[in-house]
Amino acid sequence: MRRKYNKYTSIADRFPFIAFIIILGLSIFFLFVFAERFPLNFFSGSQASQIVKETSDYSIYIISPSNKQVFEFVNENESVPVEIKSKDIENLDYKLKLLANGEAIRTFNSPPYEYNWNPPGPGEYEMVANLVDDNDRVIASSNSVSFIVQYTSQTLETIERSIDIEEKKKLALKDAVYRAQNGAPIFSFKCYTPPVIDGVIDEWDIYDRAQIANPTIKKENFSSIKDCSGIIYTCWDDDAFYFAVIVTDDVFSQNYTGNQINNGDSVKLVFDTDLEGDFNIPFYNSDDFDIDFSPGNFAGILPEAFIYFPSRAPVGVEIKSAKTAGGYIIEAKIPWENFISFGARDMLVAGFTASIFDTDNLETTELVVSTSPQFEIYNVTILGTIVFIDGGDLMLTIKTEDETGSGEE
């Protein structure tokens, strides 16, 4: 018997085929839309290539140091100022790694991207900054800059003295208790004709000079002696202590007077007049003196001095200042009556540090540089050394040598 089949089938019978066609069509549609929005390397599994593609618009640029720049340093504490500008990376979960000659020297987690880098020595350096992820994979790189670091003499030569004076200097240190680790001693010579306190320092050339260039307080802000440093001359007689400081300061700022002058650009002298007696006592006591000197602001505020410790106004101090193209000059006379039971004498050794306070228009001190490698207010155990020497009339000695030299020509 022949079976009869229905010529027509219902929609329900055709539903699996219809559903398959609809799903296939939608899949093809979404595949094209997805592929149009994402690059093909997404499908190749190259995730790193995808990241680099997406970050190709990031801008990272080293603006300091500049390419082919030459740094001429005279102090091992001087540094290369690094500044990096960027675009669109501040809010990313990436880090900026700075490299010099292939070695990582600093990693920034966030801006500002600024750093004072102390090079390990003279030579040629190449610097680049890389944007990296947590796996240290490079996402983007900055421009590459090349620069040179050179060092000149790091010490100031003292004036060659007579054999007798040189022997006296050695003898004074041989029999003295002082902290040799706190820097080379400063030799202060007796003056038979006191310098005129007028802000003009031509007459100081006959005395030894010492450099004020060791960053001691907020030293992380020190970049170069062109930013803040100085040279100090000293001398003495039976009546007073005299000094002249030539300060290099790229941004001058002094708006304070009285006991606040060290909040602006100023010079501080600290004396420990009984170095051997309180050799191991770190804090100030009755034989220690901390004196601040302000150049004024050359526009209404006059130069002045203030005895910071023990806190009081000085007696009979003379001070003059002068503005220079690169900073300022302070010249001063401090009568011994400001010191309690102290006056200089031949071959006396005392604690001493001269410091320059630099503010650069900030509300607080930005940097302090000193004659000694270390300096802290109220800590006399890290003071340097001053040696008082009577070497005779140095002016007369210089004149005699000049006359002798002229006669031999």
Supply the key terms.
single chain; 409 residues; alpha+beta; Immunoglobulin-like; 2 domains; 13-stranded mixed beta sheet; six-stranded mixed beta sheet; 36% strand
What does this structure look like?
By secondary structure, the protein is α+β, with helices and mostly antiparallel strands. Helix content is 16%, strand content 36%. It has two domains: 99 residues, Immunoglobulins (Immunoglobulin-like, Sandwich), CATH 2.60.40; 233 residues, Immunoglobulin-like (Sandwich). Strands 10, 11, 12, 13, 14, 15, 16, 17, 18, 19, 20, 21 and 22 form a 13-stranded mixed beta sheet that branches. Strands 2, 4, 5, 7, 8 and 9 form a six-stranded mixed beta sheet that branches. It has a three-stranded antiparallel beta sheet with strand order 1-3-6, with no helix packed on it. The longest helix has 27 residues. The N and C termini lie far apart (151 Å).
CATH topology of the largest domain: Immunoglobulin-like
* Domain module tally: 2
Structural class: alpha+beta
Major beta sheet summary: 13 strands, mixed
- Roughly how much helix do the residues carry, as a percent range? 10-25%
Treating each run of at least 4 consecutive H or I residues as one helix, how many helices? Answer: 5
Number-wise, the strands total 22
Can you name the CATH architecture of the largest domain? Sandwich
Q: Strand share of the residues?
A: 35-45%
Cα separation of the termini: 151 Å
Contiguous low-pLDDT stretches (5 residues minimum) are 38-56
Whole-number mean pLDDT: 85
Q: Per the principal axes of the C-alpha atoms, what is the gross shape?
A: elongated
**Could you tell me the radius of gyration in angstroms?**
35 Å
Task: Report the top-level CATH class of the largest domain.
Answer: Mainly Beta
Order of helices and strands: HHHEEEEEEEEEHEEEEEEEEEEEEEH
